[in-house]
Structures are given as structure tokens and as C-alpha cells.
Design brief:
- The protein is of the alpha/beta class.
- It folds into two domains: about 15-220 and about 345-390, Crotonobetainyl-coa:carnitine coa-transferase, domain 1 (Rossmann fold), CATH 3.40.50; about 250-330, formyl-coa transferase, domain 3 (2-Layer Sandwich), CATH 3.30.1540.
- The protein contains 17 helices and eleven strands.
- The chain has helices spanning about 25-35, 65-75, 85-95, 110-115, 120-125, 155-160, 180-205, 215-220, 220-230, 265-275, 280, 290-295, 295-305, 310-320, 330-335, 340, 385-390; strands at about 15-20, 40-45, 75-80, 100-105, 130-135, 210, 250-255, 255-260, 325, 345-350, 355-360.
- A six-stranded parallel beta sheet has the order 3-2-1-4-5-6.
- Strand 10 and strand 11 (about 355-360) form a beta hairpin.
């Protein structure tokens, strides 16, 4: 159980040793920390490389507090251990005897070369759940021909199929704005950890689990597989259109864009009524989603004719609450949205060293009785060494 905090969330009492760096692994362990797990960030000398990636607040003249780092390492504590050093490796091993979870995102074989493999740690802590996030998975669960390849977000997006169906058209693959090649595997790994810890509590035995970044992206691009298997289709990028439902796109307004999605017949009928197009409601060639997909240009032209003379606010006044719609927001719009305030989706943390209170993304999983919380910013490098060593009796 965490020595620092009272009950903080549904994962209070879970002890996690976090060896991860940059984004995929830290995002995974951030999710655990946000909901009360005691996440101990074990950093190499020099720290997580994300500490230097920026962006930096103007007050941070020494450039020590990167937003990138704080965003995914909040609620954690830090200790520096050089696992190539025998004494530090022994310290880590002693900590692992008392941990519930170890998480790492090294390349295949690194922990084995350090003498800290899952199998060796399991001998001293059979309940241990050991999780790995790698580009192409771990040989324990299925050896990929790319097992030894390094990978980053853009590689996972490319190989997992996401880029092939994203972009203005088939000749220009496009990556996503956020780093989903890292973040999605992190989310899936957090799920795996919670499931494995629950089983370990029931049967007294942990296990190894891993998430390949490639696999995770294919998992969220599941449509690729069933389209190809069921219909022999090789899906391609189609801009903001959807290949299977219509209308389901974004449309221009006088001050930007709005999203409208009405694949259900009743929603389509209501949209046509609200934009004053009774002819669309009664047209026999538009009476099913499949027919509207075939006539997508005609449908789009009709909706654009209505939206293009109105603002986001005017569109919302007519369609809001009646058909699925919403403005295409930028970050200033998001900061001003009352939904974000009501749902506490912008969290504020104090970074005392630079005298600033700064904002991070909030916690999207909301529990009524034991809500998670963004309590503190990311830890200073090695800032919790003494208390962590005391906690483990070292």
C-alpha cells in the first residue's frame, strides 16, 4: 500500500515498479497511478529521456520540467537505479519481491542480459505480474520476425493499418495527431495488468503479459480485417467519409467545421426535417443507410448547403440534442467548454520549482465512489529515494 496517501482510488494498494520511458509505458503506468496505485518510477542515471523533450514553460529557464514528461508521469515517485550496476540491480530485485507489478518497455532480451528476467523475478515472487510493451511483442507470447526491431509511434501506425485508411485519399497515408501508436498499447497494457493482478489475487500466482504496438493498432483498426475477410475489400483512406455509414462526416460552417453522424434511420429522418429538406426524407433512393452510402455525394451536398451558411453555434442551436453532432474543437475551444469543467477533464498541478500551476489532461474514467485524481506533477529525478528505500526496508 502506498505510504504517502490515504485511499485514493480503485487501485489503492497496488504496488507497481515502473521501468518505462517516453510514452507507451509511462502512459500505461499513469493510468494506474491516476486511480491510486503506488507507481515507483525507476529511472536510469540521467532520467527518462522524456524529461528533455519539451515543451517548457517560459519560467523554466533551466528546462527541467517538460510538459511531455509531466503529462504522463504525474502521481508517480522517482528513484534512480542503474540496473547495470550489481548493487542497484540487487536493490531492484529486493523491491520486486514486494511488488505486485513490474512494467518495462525495453527491447527484447534487455532484462535477461541484466539478470532480471521475469522468470528469475518470479522465483522470488510467484504473485508478480510482469508486463512489457514492445514494438512487436515478446517471444514468450509469439515470436515475431520483427521481434528485435525498434519501434516508435509512427512505425506502429504505419504497420498496423491505421495510416492506410487515414488521410485525404489512398495516395496520401496520414498518421494521427496524437501518438496512438504508443497510447493505445499503453491503455491495453493497463487493462492487462489490472486483469492479471485480479487473477493473481485469486490464485496466488502472477504471470507474464505483453502488448505489441503493432498488434494494438491492428486491434483498433478491426474494420480492416472484417471488410477484407467478409467482402474481399482492401480498405483505403477516404478523407472524413465513412465507408459503411452515411451521413458520417464533418461539414463546413462559417467559423470552422462541425461533425454530423446519422447512420440510424430515425436520425437521418430528423436531420432532413431540421434542415428543411422534406424531399430527402421522402426520396425512395435515400431510405436506407446503404442507399445513402451509394449516394454520398448527393447527401453531402445537401447537408453542406445548409451548414455552410451557419456558424457552429447556429448549427448546435438547431441540431444539438436532436441528432448526433458537435463542433470540431481546437484546444482553446476545449478549455472554454463547460463539459470539460463539469467533467474535470483539465487538471491543474503545481510545479513549485518554477512557481507555476499548469494544466494537464484530466482522468477520463470516472468512478462515483472512488474517483481517481491528478494529485501531483511528475516527480523530480530521484526525488523519493530515501522514502522508497525505507518503504521496502532497504
Amino acid at each position: 500500500m502506498s505510504v504517502n496517501h490515504p485511499l485514493q482510488g480503485v487501485l489503492d494498494g497496488m504496488r507497481v515498479l515502473d521501468l518505462t520511458q517516453v510514452l507507451a509505458g509511462p502512459y500505461c503506468t499513469m493510468l494506474l497511478a491516476d486511480h491510486g496505485a503506488d507507481v515507483i518510477k525507476i529511472e536510469p542515471p540521467g532520467g527518462d529521456v522524456a524529461r528533455g523533450m519539451g515543451l517548457f514553460h517560459a519560467s523554466d529557464t533551466e528546462k527541467r520540467h517538460a510538459g511531455y514528461f509531466h503529462s504522463v508521469n504525474r502521481n508517480k515517485r522517482s528513484i534512480v537505479l542503474d540496473l547495470k550496476n550489481a548493487d542497484d540491480a540487487a536493490t531492484f530485485r529486493a523491491m520486486a519481491r514486494q511488488a505486485d507489478v513490474v512494467v518495462e518497455n525495453y527491447r527484447v532480451g534487455v532484462m535477461e542480459r541484466l539478470g532480471l528476467s521475469y522468470e528469475s523475478l518470479r522465483e522470488e515472487n510467484p504473485r508478480l505480474v510482469y508486463a512489457a510493451v514492445r514494438g512487436f511483442g515478446d517471444p514468450r507470447t509469439g515470436r515475431s520476425p520483427y521481434a528485435d526491431w525498434p519501434a516508435f509511434d509512427i512505425v506502429a501506425q504505419a504497420m498496423g493499418g491505421f495510416m492506410s485508411i487515414t488521410g485525404p485519399g489512398p495516395d496520401m497515408p496520414l498518421k494521427s495527431g496524437p501518438g496512438i501508436g504508443d497510447i493505445v498499447p499503453g491503455i491495453m497494457c493497463a487493462f492487462g495488468i489490472v486483469a492479471a493482478v485480479r487473477l493473481a489475487e485469486r490464485r496466488g500466482q502472477g504471470q507474464f503479459l505483453d502488448v505489441a504496438m503493432y498488434d494494438a493498432i491492428l486491434g483498433i483498426c478491426e474494420r480492416l480485417v472484417h471488410q477484407h475477410s467478409f467482402a474481399g475489400v482492401v480498405p483505403k483512406a477516404e478523407g472524413n467519409e465513412h465507408p459503411l455509414v452515411n451521413p458520417f462526416s464533418i461539414f463546413p460552417v462559417t467559423d470552422g467545421w462541425v461533425a454530423i453522424g446519422c447512420p440510424i434511420e430515425a436520425q437521418w429522418q430528423e436531420l432532413a426535417r431540421l434542415i428543411g429538406r422534406e424531399d430527402l426524407r421522402t426520396d425512395p433512393g435515400l431510405q436506407s443507410n446503404a442507399e445513402r452510402v451509394r449516394q454520398r455525394e448527393r447527401v453531402r451536398s445537401a447537408i453542406e448547403a445548409w451548414t455552410s451558411t451557419r456558424s457552429k453555434q447556429e448549427v448546435a442551436a438547431v441540431l444539438g440534442g436532436r441528432v448526433p453532432c458537435g463542433p470540431v474543437n481546437n484546444v482553446t475551444d476545449i478549455f472554454a467548454d463547460p463539459h470539460i469543467a463539469a467533467r474535470e477533464m483539465i487538471a491543474e498541478v503545481e510545479i513549485a520549482e518554477i512557481g507555476q500551476r499548469l494544466q494537464l489532461a484530466g482522468i477520463p474514467v470516472h468512478f462515483a465512489d472512488t474517483p481517481g485524481k491528478v494529485r501531483v506533477a511528475g516527480p523530480g529525478l530521484d526525488a523519493h529515494r530515501e522514502e522508497i528505500l525505507r518503504q521496502f526496508g532497504l
